[in-house]
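Subject: two folds for Thursday's group meeting

Dear M.,

Sorry for the delay on this. The cluster queue was jammed most of the week, so I only got both jobs back this morning. I'm pasting them in the order they finished. Each block is the input sequence followed by the predicted structure tokens. Could you check whether the formatting survives your parser before we put anything on slides? The first protein is the one we discussed after the seminar.
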Amino acid sequence: MPPSNKNIILVTGGSRGIGAAICLQAAAKGYIVCLNFHSNRAAAHKIVEQIIVEGGAAHAFQADVAIEDDIVEMFKEIDKLEGNLTVLVNNAG
């Protein structure tokens, strides 16, 4: 299902477990999914690829949510996307 709107959701810790499930559900609802991961790039990209294969839109951002500079940089990158960040799920940190 393609994104039905320009709403962006950011899920911290979105590459595994509950965070990954939230990402997949959000994509199914038409959100552009931005998932944050700390170190497991392969797991993050697996979720992004799954969302894209299913017709959604997703992006992965590496950042340590305990480091302010990482968070600021992540939000700068998200701001470059077409759409509006409307939902934040603080699943990590």
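Second protein, same layout:
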Amino acid sequence: MLNYLQAAVKGMVNIMMLGKIIDFMELNQMVEKGDSIVIGVSGGADSICLLYVLSEISKEYSLGLRVVHVNHQLRGEEANEDQEFVRLTCEKLGVDFHSFSYDVKKISQSNKISEEEAGRKVRYQSFLEICLKYKCNKIATAHNKNDNAETFLFNLFRGSGIKGLSGIDSSLKLKRINKEVTIIRPLLCVTRREIEAFLHTRDIPYRIDSTNLTDNYSRNKIRNNVLTYATKEINNNTIEHISRAANHLKEIALFIEETTERSYKKVVSQREDGFLFNIEDILKENIVIQKAIIRKIFEQLGGRLKDVEAVHIQQVLDLYDKPVGKRIDLPYGMVALKEYEAIKFYCESQIQKQVDYEATCIKIDGPGVYYLPGDNNYLEVNIFSAVKNITIPKNSCIKWFDYDKIEIAVEVRTRRTGDYIQINNSGGRKKLKDYFIDRKIPREKRSKTLLVADGNHIMWILGKGDRISEKYKISESTVRILSMRLINAEDNEDARKY
């Protein structure tokens, strides 16, 4: 009778556990008939459980399974025994087995990253290699509720935002070499205790990684000390509660992400050399969305967020009220710069690659077409006699000047000390620096703005609309006209021949 009850209990554990995992997989659309799946198997309880579950449902779903085992070369003979154990298990289940071996300690040292990070990188590298080789479309990893709780606490202690506290994704799409691969985590719905009970009732052996019992790694300290203490001394359902909280935060993170995407498109402008938003525009958004927009800019500009912390986002928020020209140096060579009514983001390396305008000085010694550096523009110059009642063009790219009022020589250059522009008919002048300040031209753009100059007298500020010096304007007494036409080579057929 006792044996019968024990068998019945085991059967119930198996059915409930398997049903729970299958329901979770179907709810999150993890598998479809005909999927070809790479399974990461270390030999521990979690990955062995995953292997048996997927093997059991493989016929019903017509799944193609391949196991990848990665030897990190950190535990000597013990690691080799793990590899052989996984190989024999795959042989027993009739699943294709692939093994890789990496010196993770050496990789960690040469790349200046932790052994945990180096191990993760080589594992996914191996998974993807088999995916590409055998045209597999999914990778299954054995993350469970305990891993989710550990990740939550690990990110909390590191100061992560809501995204980092939302735990591990049940599925994640990766794009590699024109191929999309989906990572699935079927065991995120069960705890490690449930996994070990499932294996025990089936008499399924598994390996125990001795390094998991030490406190050599941050996650081990959280697992062996923080979570163990919390479960025993505070609440027996600590793992469940943390996992549930992470799922709630995931829903909030998704809402913020969707809202941020809409606001980002309204607020942020992408420029050739970076990104920019108007301070007045972003202040209309909730502070949560402001921070998310800034994080998105960091990700777009820097390509990653690993070293971006809350303090960096706060520095940008504080920049709103700082003086014009104030800058903040950020991770990955990024810079946030306060302009008059905006914050500009760029990478220092990109700015250094731009054309050096400082040395620009082009002598205009007569009619012709002159190439202007930087924006692929040309300046077409002509001189002709004035006639009565001539119509002066209003096109911002064409300017006429009284040729006989030129005192020194005409040249196109960048600014110099002593430059000025005449602002009225009575001879009133304004320093070029003051003009730039009045027009709220960003400081870093002032030295790159091209000018048509007669000595220190600025005749025309290129790219600034209709602003030319009052001195050179056409009048009834004008005899000869100097015509200048700004042409963009990319947009104008006339310039392409030059």
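Two things I noticed about the second structure. The first helix runs from residue 2 to 27. The chain is about 40% helix and 20% strand.

Cheers,
T.
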